[in-house]
Amino acid sequence: MKTTIYSLFVAGALIIFSACTSSETQEGGTESSNVTTDNTPLGQASVVDSESDPNILQVAIGSPDHTTLVAAVQAAHIEHILVNAGPLTVFAPTNAAFDKLPEGTVETLLKPENVGDLTKILTRHAAPGSYNIEALKKEVRKGRNKLYMATDDYFEITVEGDDVYVNGAKVLASIQTSNGIVNVVDEVLLPKE
Amino acid sequence: MKLTKYLFAAALAGAALSFTSCDSSKKESKGALGGNLAERSFVAPGEHDEFYAFVSGGFSGQLSVYGLPSGRLFKVIPVFSVDGEKAYGFNEETKAMLNTSYGFVPWGDSHHPDISQTDGVLDGRWVFINENNTPRIARISLETFETVEIIEIPNTAGNHSSAYVTDNTEYVIAGTRFSVPVPQRDMPINEYKGNFKGALSFLKVDPESGEMDLSFQIMMPGFDYDKAHPGRGKSHGWFFYTTYNTEEAHTLLEVNASQNDKDFIAAINWKKIEEYVANGGGKMMPAKYAHNIYSDETHTATSTMKTEVLTVEPKDVPGAIYFLPTPKSPHGCDVDPSGEYIVGSGKLSANVTVHSFTKMLDAIENEKFAGEAYGIPILNFEDVLAGTVVQPGLGPLHTEFDGKGNAYTTFFISSEVVKWKLGTWEVIDRKPTYYSVGHLMIPGGNSRKPFGKYLVAMNKITKDRYLPTGPEVTQSAQLYDITGDKMELLLDFPTVGEPHYAAGIPADLVAPNSKKYFKLEDNKHPYATLNEKDVKVVRDGNTVHVYMTMIRSHFAPDNIEGIQEGDKVYFHVTNLEQDYDVPHGISMIGANTSELLIMPGQTETFVWNANNQGVWPFYCTDFCSALHQEMQGYVRVSPKGSDVPLKWSLDDE
Amino acid sequence: MKKSKIIMMLGAFLLLSLFVFPLWNITLEAPQYPEPLGMDIWINKIADHNPNDIKNINLMNHYVGMKEIPIHMPEFDIFPIVIGAMSLLGIIIGFIGKKGLYITWFVVMSILGSAGMYDFYAWEYEYGHNLNPKAAIKFMDKNGDPLAYQPPLIGNKTILNFKAKSWPMAGAYLMFIGMGLSVVAFIVDKKEDNS
């Protein structure tokens, strides 16, 4: 068990390391001043605070199950959105969820020229308000089963037994953060055709 | 499942680490910002700023005066909250300013300052500002930089969509954020829907004196009226209000008021309603509200309690009010300098919606209605839409204009200002704010003539931007240069209270009119003493009135005897100076009130209760002159019924 | 009418401008007064250059024990009569048209003018030297004597942190021109006699 934790810690540190290098390259890229990528510097995401309860971004960065998501967030330069006062509900697809996407999808999205699409896809995973599993169940109970997402889309919430699904993706766990809720989901949320 | 949670927790420590390690790269990148930015916001010692910025104090209840581009603070004008420094709400003269139908209220929540206009251009005569909690509008004179009038708004709760002026300052408006039963009565809260009302108030402004008068209130459906903007130029004569909670929810609004796909911008043809009212329309209803006016001649405020208000039902004035569907709880309601575009920022929407005034008139004329709400026609969304700024950021709030065809919108959630082009709706530039910007201000940026040189972003959060001061850290504004294609962040500066909104104006429209002192010969204060020879002390039962003067560097009289235990002593103090920047202060041990800070030529009064025998000093509190420390005196208090005669003197004469 | 007569009458007439314009001005400049304090001296009064200037000069000066600037002085009664009389006399002289009288008028005016300047100096001396012994602030000069605050008769002078400026104003210049014209009239008359 001890070794597991230790290796996790090392893995975390590695992620962090890569996060730093990538942010440096972003700043270099700012010079070209492309409108859509001109989100750097990181704004509120650069606040150093190890005392307060962790926010959505910090929780995501700290999770070894969400390395793909974090990499995507950093590629889209939208870190500052996840540290905002909120409250926000973020549906966080696991690495396994990203793996379910067709081969090569993630790699394509991570290319700098696709940053617009990537941003939109990621933003679609955020909803204004605080909805953990229990709150989502209440919404369904009250007949308010359409959840409004930050991209103007509505996702349907369904309850099957004890499980809650958003747009067909199963909510695996709800994590309370300082600025909202992280709901871990097993699929990437894409609009249903 | 448990394991997942455990893993999260374990990795949190790593997250903290990551931020420490990233810090150094952030510091380095700041160096690149250097350049000549410091120079461009630097105002050399003795030089003056180019603009005044009147920044609302939000929950401080006051209005602060800053210079731009330096960000230097000049004055905090007390408006809705008492201020011990200036004796506002403490001296006998200004207590009436804070009188309301609920009695004396020592605090307020100031929100939106707006500068008076002539022909849609800032004229620099007055600043109007609204109070949210105890609904009021104040008028501040830009000659004295003092609050000269406060009027309460009845039938209103949360006076948020306020205090904006029309092109010629014909009206300043108020609007209720919280709908309430009108008139107030005992009823179940869950019967809100259909029964509560939202009053929108129009206050006529006297073109000479600036005095406000509540002309009429429109009794709208029970939505939340959030922000407002008058029509400009071609749309002059209309007023636009954003609404949310068109669901008419009465509980858990964060969910229940966010259900409708679209709420409304209410378009109100106030000229039509003005005409209707002028022809005897509307219904008088009983209402209690205070109207307080401060006079620069008597240096005293008077409070009058009004007893009725004229109300107008929308259904009685057909063709005067329409609803423009606008996505997702629109917050900011902003009209461009030409008056053609009405920008509604759905705060939960990813897009910014822009309506066209021309299309709106056409839709009205051709009755392109999508339905109606409480008898008010709802126009077809597509028929009034001018365009949409697609996905510019998250959480759009407010928009101002530079007069060069560009609009600037703040985004709370994505914490940035985005510049976009009117007409093409394309995003031109975006800059982060530190952090979570609310309002923004370009001097004149909500009028027909913006002075598009600087933009001030007013932030809700500062976190690590300044030296920490415990859990409560400073509030902050940020100055951007907007003369180029790209915005440039020049300066952070701390603000007093919450910098809710601001109004800016070129200094040369205001500074030349700033008053230097009050003329003694114009002083009509009933207890003024205009000459040192006329000072006196007058007993009236247990009340004693001291007619006192102050001039460099003494009080007259400075020795007073014959006061008795239990006396209530009124010190009416006149500053005899007639020179710029020579105020004097006075305070006295044992006084249960603030100091007085008296401007040259002014008279102010404080009360002192002679509770204890003895000899009690008073002194000048404002370092006035070389012999300021010598500016002091004594009051002798004798036992009740003592035969010490009432006596006053200066230099034993 | 002879040219010299007209010039003489015009010169005498110009004296009357002293009733319209101030004679002299004393201005005090200091860093804390971005708008300097000034007093205008007329033949019948001392007046504020800008509103309340004299009050503020008095307030400043009382710390060093200087008296208040007088609202009324005996000179203010005498000067208008003298000026009025001299102007009238000059016009009559011009009418008579004798060049000897022209130059006599000029000499009398010069004597009166000098007397006036001496009187002004004497007042300045008294104002600057006669200090209240109970003054809050006492300055000494290099010799250990009490510092005097006498403004200059004409010209600029630095007194502590103040720069005192004393210069004639429009009334004085017009008076000088008037006196000069009487001399011109004398010369012109002489030439007219010769031709």
* Shape call of chain C: elongated
Radius of gyration of chain B: 28 Å
Low-confidence stretches of chain C: none
**How much is the radius of gyration of chain C in Å?**
20 Å
What's the short version?
With 653 residues, chain B is mainly beta. Mean pLDDT of chain B is 93; it is low at 1-34.
Word description of this protein:
The complex is a heterotrimer of chains A (193), B (653) and C (195). Chain A is of the alpha+beta class and 193 residues long. Chain A has one domain (2-185): FAS1 domain (Roll), CATH 2.30.180.10. Helix content of chain A is 37%, strand content 20%. Chain A is built from seven helices and seven strands. Chain A has helices at residues 2-29, 56-62, 67-75, 95-99, 105-109, 115-123, 133-141, and strands at residues 88-93, 126-128, 146-148, 154-160, 163-166, 169-177, 180-185. In chain A, helix 1 packs parallel to helix 3. The longest helix of chain A is centred in the first third of the chain and has 28 residues, at 2-29. Chain B is globular and about 85 Å long. With 653 residues, chain B is mainly β. A nine-stranded mixed sheet of chain B has the order 6-7-8-9-16-17-12-11-10, covered by helices on one side. Chain B has a six-stranded mixed sheet with strand order 40-39-42-43-37-44, with no helix packed on it. Chain B has two domains: 50-513, YVTN repeat-like/Quinoprotein amine dehydrogenase (Methylamine Dehydrogenase, Chain H, 7 Propeller), CATH 2.130.10.10; 525-649, Sandwich (Immunoglobulin-like). Helices cover 9% and strands 43% of the residues of chain B. Chain C starts with a helix and ends with a helix. Chain C has one domain (3-194). In chain C, a hairpin with a 4-residue loop joins strand 2 and strand 3 (46-48). Chains in contact: A-B, B-C. The interface between A and B is large, with 57 and 55 residues.
